[in-house]
Amino acid sequence: MPVERPEDRREEEEGAVRPARPAKPLRRLVRVAFLLVALGFGAWAVARQWTEISAGFARLSWPSLVLSLVAVVAALGGGMMTWRSLLADLGSPLPVRAGAKVFFVGQLGKYIPGSLWPVLAQMEMGRELGVPRPRSAAAFFLTLPVQLASGLVVSAVTLLVALPGTAVPYAWVFLLVPVLAVAFEPRVINAVLGFGLRKLGRGPLERPLTRRGMLTALGWATLGWIAYGLHLAALVTQLGPSGASAVLFSIGAFALSWCLGIMTFVVPAGAGVREVAMVAVMAPVLDRGSAIAVALCSRVVIVIGDLVCAGAAGLAARREVPSPHDAAREESG
């Protein structure tokens, strides 16, 4: 039975990032099972509406679909950097490749019904890199409100500029903005996190969040929304209006529909809710048939983007994993 060295315990307590070690057979089996289940639910979410989706794809050109996918990958990268900046501010800075693997592979869990699969996956994968589980959980649960707040602000600004009347039916959603602005004061967040950790019987966070870290996360999240909007604009301009106003409208429409969808936690990745909201938001610029085609094709492009990012991050991170021989030599030294 391997003996735990004091320095190993100290590394985990302080959140030091260490090279990932080869996973044990049981842990590897659990990870494979997680990926298969996530992929299965993701495929089911697409297959159950495949007739409508294929009809939507038939109305779009391949260049627009490729451009939409490129924008989605950039948007997902913005989401990863949002989470990574929060984790670093909490005391666990991860290299980009390692952080991308933890984030993107863990995010596949959003396709499984329930809200905890992504955070559980990120906690276990982060632990292999020396990130304490409470810190991983804190970064995960902070990412969602950061994206929600930035998404509401982005949607309010862009929709008001593009088509002022579009945002009026959803004015009640924007009432959350001042509430979230107060909640993002670091002293408030740190007090809430400390209270939650005490209730769970955990010790306090070693490093509190700072205003600079929060602003960095909000900046990355905003860039992510712009990229998501470009993803939607590549589809909308094929079936409806074009130009700068259409691009601004697409940015606001996607951000608003995502914010409405994320408020529903009982379906995988907000499946269905976001599409319904997107069709409603796009009603001023697209007929119902075109709006449904765009919403469903957007769903498929995002699923493909999730798979591309998870696969690319996994392959990139494997290049940094030391071989068993190197790991053994490092431990003996």
TrEMBL record:
UniProt keywords, alphabetically: Cell membrane, Membrane, Transmembrane, Transmembrane helix
Membrane-spanning intervals of the chain: 29-50, 62-83, 137-163, 169-193, 214-234, 246-271
Pfam families, per database record: LPG_synthase_TM
Membrane topology, record value: Multi-pass membrane protein
InterPro entries, A to Z: L-PG_synthase/AglD
GO cellular component terms, semicolon-separated: plasma membrane
Predominant location: membrane
Location within or outside the cell: Cell membrane
Lineage: superkingdom: Bacteria
Name of the protein in question: Flippase-like domain-containing protein
Organism: Streptosporangium sandarakinum
Lineage per the UniProt record: Bacteria, Bacillati, Actinomycetota, Actinomycetes, Streptosporangiales
